[in-house]
Amino acid sequence: MKVYLVGGYVRDNEMNRLLGTTITAKDRDWVVVGSTESEMLKQGFNRVGKFPVFLHPQNKEEWALARTEKKTGNGYKGFEVDFNPNVTLEEDLSRRDLTINAMAQNPDTGLIIDPYNGKTDIQNKILRHTSPAFVEDPLRVLRVARFAARFNEFTIAPETMVEMQRIADAGELEYLTPERVSQEILSALSEDHPEIFFNVLRECNALAIIWPELNALWGIPNPVQHHPEICTGIHTMMVLQQATRLSSKTTIRFAALCHDLGKGVTPKNELPSHKRHEIRGLPLVETSCNRFKTPNEYRQLALKVCQFHLHSHRALELKSSTILTLFNQLDVWRKPQEFEDFLITCEADAKGRLGFEKRAYPQADLLHLAVNECLKVNAKKFVENGIHGKLIKEAINNERVSIIQAIKNNFDKPN
Ligand SMILES: Nc1ccn([C@@H]2O[C@H](COP(=O)(O)OP(=O)(O)OP(=O)(O)O)[C@@H](O)[C@H]2O)c(=O)n1
Questions:
Q1: What is the CATH number of the domain that holds 1?
Q2: Are strands 68-71 and 79-82 parallel, antiparallel or unpaired?
Q3: Within 10 Å of residue 256's Cβ, how many Cβ atoms?
């Protein structure tokens, strides 16, 4: 039997060598040629997962028998896998998604085995599918989009884009499980250019299937004075970029994507105005979160940003009592960190507009300061002064409103 390093580990190291990048290569994956399941088990490997994949008994690295795959049904599940010991390294590499992911390395000599010219594609910064087997796994449409978001200087080969469109148009993406789609989306959100992920999915007609509520935003106009970029889809991508610049949290980036979903359902006769889009957006955020089974913190932040982002933008003009109501609605007393994330997302919304990128967002400073000062007010002082029952809450609220008013007085109104 022979073993080779494969996949992301080889790709990342070759990128560093050929392009001078400094990617920390992830865990090592191995492919085993000329062996069998029983031989692997005899050597102490443990079998994991559905495919002939094993874990090394000591270091727990993944070792997989070389295999070929043939599609037998729709979507991701219908596969016939052949892992007989005669499957060659080249055959195994040919079933892999992209040429840059289809290289192997001999661990003894360091030699790179590169039958599909992955090195050349790295040098030319091209994401190119390895073989016709690409279409056999629809998840690859999302993977390519994710790699485009990660390696943002790379372009997708035109012939690969054609294959991606073909997969989307054939309805194959509908067979992907929500878990796999969600995993790809959340991991794309942690890349440096997540907006590229969504733009690529749009380009190959996949976004309409994967996330129709988001896709609906392209072509929906906004009033030009607030949105020189006009299109809500373009605006949303700009907000995502700003959110990415301001924070590494994927919850914030997800909320940025969801904040204007309501604009996609504004009645045509009301355009380009979007009254009540914050409320109209709420069920669409819920639908999106249900579909992707997002963890609760994603849903909570996205709903709050969707409903209250305009309140944040208008903070300098709002009455102090309205600001206090906003704080109560946002539950800032119990969730101060979520409130910070809310403010960052609102700032991203304000800056994610053509020509507005460098504008200050004093609203966040005001609200941030106001919450911190309001948090210092507690019942103790009022109890000591003989106030009881319901009146305590009222006294706390009154004091908080006065504090907010004093802070507002110190803030300049925007021009
Ligand atoms: N749908 C898939 C998933 C994986 N692979 C192959 O399996 C390897 C390992 O997959 P995985 O660990 O999921 O991804 P990586 O390419 O290592 O990328 P990442 O850094 O995102 O984990 C890939 O390089 C690729 O050769 C594939 O061809 N098609």
A1: 3.30.460.10
A2: antiparallel
A3: 33
Is residue 300 in some structural domain? no
CA distance 24 to 197: 21
Asked if residue 240 is part of any domain, the answer here is: no
Q: Report the distance separating Cα 23 and Cα 75, nearest Å.
A: 32
pLDDT tens string 187-201? 999 999 999 999 999
**Measured distance CA(135)–CA(131) in Å, rounded:** 9
Q: What is the pLDDT of residues 49-97, one digit of tens each?
A: 767 899 999 999 999 999 998 877 776 566 788 999 999 999 999 999 9
What's the one-letter identity of residue 365? D
Ligand 1 atom 23: residue of nearest CA: 7
pTM: 0.93
Whether the predicted interface score ipTM is above 0.95: yes
Question: Which residues form ligand 1's pocket by a CB distance below 6 Å?
Answer: 7-8, 26, 29, 96-97, 101-102, 137, 139-140, 143
Report how far ligand 1's centroid is from the alpha carbon of 109 (Å). Answer: 23
- How many domains, in total, are found in the chain? 2
Q: Whose CA is nearest to atom 16 of ligand 1?
A: 8
